[in-house]
Specification:
The protein has twelve helices and 18 strands. It is an alpha+beta fold. Helix 6 packs parallel to helix 11 and helix 9 packs across helix 11. The longest helix has 24 residues. The radius of gyration is 23 Å and the shape is globular. Bound molecules: adenosine-5'-diphosphate and ligand LMANGFYV.
Length: about 475
């Protein structure tokens, strides 16, 4: 079975535009498909059927395609693993990408997002367990072969994510990176480093997948142990806010489901992760010239954001003042590897401890930028933003009143303080002592969030905008 690149190029744009992880929705780019690798030819991949249905008995081929999207100011590359089938498959309807023609037989070939096709996802795990190289794609095993659950069936996680994650049984989770860039993905890099130093607050790395092109390494996927008993911080924090709002007039410390003790432990765990990152990668110092450069970059991000979110004009002057204060910090600032996109959706509470996930950094930044050392206050700011989000997002659904606004602000403040105290107690500096850094980082993050919300969840845009008003006023 051979399919024509031009035909794949024809069907991809409409499907891409519907994917949550596709960052190009608000821009017009031209899409060109290219075949990266064939992981399994159609005839060699027949799997025993799960359901016994006839349609499942077709042998699907598996290919990794890349969608190169060209905009006036650059190119983005998206990974699109495709399952090639000879017939439409009803239960895969939501993963249908398009129909093309087999160049050899003239028959129709039905293309599906392979990550939703349970009959083919085992290819990735088997190749990692066997440390295979398939058509230039290298499958690396980072744990014992017995820890790779090759015979488990997969299920795609349905959350709003930048990548696509599949859970195999309840043993492993594979994240397939969607937007690709040259370089070892920091998520793989940091998990591998933590395996060496014995970091306690991350999930175990089981394997990863890379390829080489034009003498550069590209990261395609990462496999980790799946933490079955875990609940994510966003669910726990928003349940606490719901409990509070359901009570008539109680304060956050009086209502059931108070989150502050967990926020405090989360702060401590974050400080331990920062210490592990220092052990693994060392520290550097940001001098005044570098601080000015970072402030200039924040201003540039604000300039770009103003084009997409015109409401930012009301706060721009105050934010620029926060960035000026950052540029004028006179003492050197200690820098290290950081998480880069820390928020409540990136932390899991297991029965033993908080675990931090997804060390990729902000998906919108280049890998080199995400690997650059920064102040760990950047992560503290990210989490503080998340407490604002958890408190305020329910006001969007239920409608804000002066009283609910007040109570949401009180919940956010209580948990922000608890987190900062935990971070300081476990070895971070007191964040309040770094107030200028904290305010600038919070502002920079909330500007990023304003763009993110405008593109993905416009009804949530008021959340970062409200915080930006507060930050602009205090600058
Ligand atoms: N090791 C794990 N164990 C259990 N759940 C996980 C694990 N890793 C990720 N998850 C779940 O998958 C979600 C997405 O993972 P994440 O790494 O944040 O992907 P993305 O880069 O797409 O945002 C997380 O919010 C979490 O709910
Ligand atoms: O997909 P990622 O987890 O890498 O991160 C992106 O999506 C996040 C939303 O899912 C977004 O986070 C923002 O919304 C969260 C609530 O859904 C909130 O807790 C965060 O504080 C807020 O930044 C994140 O910014 C984006 O990079």
């Amino acid at each position: 079975m051979r399919i024509d690149t031009a035909e794949v190029t024809r069907v991809l744009p409409e499907w891409l535009g519907r994917q949550r992880w596709y960052a190009g929705k608000s821009r017009s780019g031209s899409v060109a498909a290219r075949l990266l690798a064939t992981l399994a030819p159609p005839t060699e991949n027949a799997q025993p059927t799960l359901t016994g249905d006839r349609e499942d008995q077709q042998a699907a081929g598996v290919q990794i395609w890349i969608a190169d999207v060209t905009y006036p100011d650059g190119v983005e590359h998206y990974q699109v693993p495709l399952a090639l089938r000879t017939q439409r498959v009803e239960h895969l309807d939501r993963a249908f990408v398009g129909s093309v023609t087999d160049l050899d037989s003239g028959q129709s070939v039905e293309l599906y997002d392979a990550l939703y096709d349970k009959e083919v996802t085992g290819v990735w795990l088997r190749a990692m367990a066997e440390e295979s190289v398939l058509d230039g794609v290298t499958f690396v095993r980072d744990a014992a072969a017995s820890e790779i659950p090759v015979s488990e069936s997969s299920l795609v996680l349905s959350g709003e994510q930048s990548n696509t994650s599949l859970v195999f049984g309840d043993a492993a989770i594979m994240k397939v990176f969607r937007r690709l860039e040259p370089g070892l993905n920091p998520d793989i890099e940091i998990h591998a480093a933590f395996a060496e130093i014995g970091g306690r607050h991350v999930a175990k790395l089981l394997g990863h997948v890379t390829t080489e092109r034009d003498d550069e390494l590209w990261s395609l996927a990462m496999l980790q142990e799946f933490l079955t008993t875990a609940t994510d911080g966003w669910q726990l924090a928003t349940a606490s806010v719901r409990d509070l709002m359901a009570e008539g007039d109680l304060h956050a410390d009086e209502a059931g489901g108070d989150f502050a003790a967990e926020a405090n432990r989360l702060g401590m765990s974050t400080a331990e992760v920062h210490a592990d990152l220092r052990t693994a990668f060392g520290t550097t110092v940001l001098d005044s010239a570098q601080l000015r450069e970072r402030a200039a970059a924040m201003n540039t991000r604000l300039d770009a954001a103003l084009h997409e979110v015109p409401q930012l004009a009301d706060v721009a002057e105050g934010l620029r003042k926060a960035y000026d204060d950052f540029a004028e910090i006179s003492e050197p600032v200690t820098a290290q590897r950081v998480h880069g996109d820390l928020h409540l959706g990136q932390v899991l509470r297991t029965s033993h401890r908080w675990v931090i996930l997804d060390f990729e950094g902000e998906p919108a930044k280049a890998i080199t930028e995400r690997q650059a050392n920064d102040s760990p206050i950047r992560d503290v700011a990210g989490m503080l933003r998340s407490f604002d989000y958890a408190a305020r997002h329910q006001l969007i659904d239920m409608g804000a009143t002066p009283q609910s606004e007040f109570r949401a602000a009180e919940w956010a403040q209580r948990n922000r303080d608890a987190f900062c105290n935990g971070w300081a107690e476990a070895g971070g500096n007191e964040p309040a002592a770094s107030a200028v850094l904290l305010r600038a980082f919070e502002a920079d993050k909330a500007v990023y969030e304003a763009v993110y919300e405008a593109r993905n969840r416009p009804n949530w845009l008021p959340i970062p905008l409200a915080s930006l008003h507060r930050l602009a006023e205090t600058a």
